[in-house]
């Protein structure tokens, strides 16, 4: 029998003799069988834990087994249920199946049939758990500051959730523009320090002679221009998170001081003699290969081993598939509103060009492209001819797109409808109009529901749910 080690089975049977028989049938299997005699006792067990499979007698001394099922459905209890009853009927079987029962056994049945049915229910339970996890990931199209539902981003989201509760240093790598600071802030917000400060320093943007002061602060008179005492990022981030972006740009001498600071939490301000102590979680990032930087002598090996505790890599935008258009639509919505433009979507050719482009600047480049379009153009659709260089070079020569008219302000006369024309206009229910639009979108995308959902700007789960509702309505 194929079953997970010590899979849990709840047996709800009021007959002591039959309960002992069923338990004996399953005794040689690697199962943990727990038996109760009433529906009320079953509810108590289900409320405390979720057994993988429940063998449920429909005729119980205190309630009908269907009441137990209805209670489970209301609370989304994930247990797979097998109905066992001597009062089997088509009606009761149908009612039970509608409530999500995985199988139906009519008494009497032998050990072989019970084992096979339980085995199938366990397989179903495992598959349902896998599908639920997949659907949860697919439907999660954003996470803190990130946007995207592609597999690489689902892995990043899970990694962030895993490392956020810890104090371990996370070393984020990825090309420029992939969102390393967004990732660091997501780790901070997801963790126990979310209410404390998040301080980010770009080591590549600060002059080397000022970098030490930016991190540790300085006292008055420490150097020319130090007219007052200044608290650095270390004190500002006390209790929270300090994110050092492009840490590979840091001077080797300062790397030595940083190593001591990371190890002890102690430091001195520039020009000061008093030692400060802080409680900080360190996050760092680079767009280079950190180990190659160590081998090249530009990054201290001991600091590398101290910081490279949990590596987290962000994939380039070109490897994120449909996320390109999803992110572009978010930017389009934002910048169109900001620039008071009418843009709502991309033409098919524009979407194709953007999807096939390499995006060396990643999300930052995509953001700049969409802002450029919104500043210089207007319309309902973003046309391929409106794309700036270098994307314009990837538009096929001779391609022609139909330019849709812009939405104009209609006059009162244009808005008025005569009684004659109104009588010819057939009004149909809103749900039917919605159904037709969704079905047309799915047909347009050759049955690809995730792609259709992107065009309709809704979640794929919304379309699946509505399709199921329409099917159920037709069966009713």
UniProtKB/TrEMBL annotation:
The keyword Transferase does not apply. Pfam families: AAA_lid_14 (PF25601), HTH_8 (PF02954), Response_reg (PF00072), Sigma54_activat (PF00158). Signal peptide: none annotated. Residues 146-375 form the Sigma-54 factor interaction domain. Keywords: ATP-binding, DNA-binding, Nucleotide-binding, Phosphoprotein, Transcription, Transcription regulation, Two-component regulatory system. InterPro entries: AAA+_ATPase, AAA_lid_NorR, CheY-like_superfamily, Homeodomain-like_sf, HTH_Fis, P-loop_NTPase, Sig_transdc_resp-reg_receiver, Sigma_54_int. Residues 8-122 form the Response regulatory domain. The modification 4-aspartylphosphate is found at residue 57. One of its GO terms (molecular function) is sequence-specific DNA binding. One of its GO terms (biological process) is phosphorelay signal transduction system. This is Sigma-54-dependent Fis family transcriptional regulator. It comes from Alginatibacterium sediminis. The lineage of its organism: Bacteria, Pseudomonadati, Pseudomonadota, Gammaproteobacteria, Alteromonadales.
């Amino acid at each position: 029998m194929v079953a997970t080690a010590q899979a849990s089975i709840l047996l709800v049977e009021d007959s002591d003799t039959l309960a002992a028989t069923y338990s004996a049938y399953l005794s040689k299997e690697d199962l943990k069988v727990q038996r109760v005699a009433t529906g009320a006792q079953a509810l108590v067990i289900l409320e405390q834990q979720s057994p993988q499979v429940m063998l449920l007698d429909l005729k119980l001394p205190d309630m009908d087994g269907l009441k137990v099922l209805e209670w489970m459905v209301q609370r989304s209890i994930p247990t797979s249920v097998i109905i066992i009853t001597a009062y089997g009927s088509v009606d009761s079987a149908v009612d039970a199946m509608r409530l999500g029962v995985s199988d139906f056994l009519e008494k009497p049945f032998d050990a072989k049939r019970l084992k096979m049915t339980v085995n199938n229910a366990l397989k179903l339970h495992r598959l349902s758990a896998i599908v639920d996890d997949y659907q949860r990931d697919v439907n999660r199209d954003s996470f803190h500051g990130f946007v995207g539902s592609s597999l690489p981003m689902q892995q990043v989201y899970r990694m962030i959730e895993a490392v956020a509760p810890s104090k371990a240093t996370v070393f984020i790598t990825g090309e420029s523009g992939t969102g390393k600071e967004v990732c660091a802030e997501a780790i901070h917000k997801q963790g126990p320090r979310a209410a404390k400060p998040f301080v980010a320093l770009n080591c590549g943007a600060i002059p080397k002679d000022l970098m030490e002061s930016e991190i540790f602060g300085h006292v008055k008179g420490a150097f020319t221009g130090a007219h007052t005492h200044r608290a650095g990022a270390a004190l500002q981030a006390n209790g929270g998170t300090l994110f050092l972006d492009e840490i590979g740009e840091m001077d080797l001498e300062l790397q030595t001081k940083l190593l001591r600071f990371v190890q002890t939490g102690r430091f001195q301000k520039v020009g000061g003699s008093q030692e400060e102590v802080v409680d900080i979680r360190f996050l760092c990032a680079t767009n280079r290969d950190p180990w190659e930087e160590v081998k090249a002598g530009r990054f201290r090996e001991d600091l590398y081993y101290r910081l490279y505790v949990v590596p987290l890599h962000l994939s380039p935008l070109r490897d994120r598939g449909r996320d390109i258009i999803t992110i572009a639509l978010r930017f389009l919505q934002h910048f169109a509103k900001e620039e008071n433009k009418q843009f709502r979507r991309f033409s098919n050719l524009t979407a194709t060009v953007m999807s096939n482009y390499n995006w060396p600047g990643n999300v930052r480049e995509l953001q700049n492209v969409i802002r450029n379009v919104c500043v210089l153009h207007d319309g309902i659709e973003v046309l391929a001819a409106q794309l700036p260089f270098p994307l314009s070079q990837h538009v096929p020569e001779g391609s022609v797109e139909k330019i849709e008219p812009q939405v104009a302000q209609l006059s009162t006369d244009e808005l008025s409808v005569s009684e004659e024309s109104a009588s010819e206009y057939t009004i149909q229910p809103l749900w039917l109009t919605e159904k037709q639009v969704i079905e047309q979108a799915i047909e347009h995308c050759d049955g690809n529901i995730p792609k259709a959902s992107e065009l309709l700007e809704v979640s794929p789960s919304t379309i699946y749910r509505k399709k199921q509702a329409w099917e159920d309505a037709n069966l009713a």
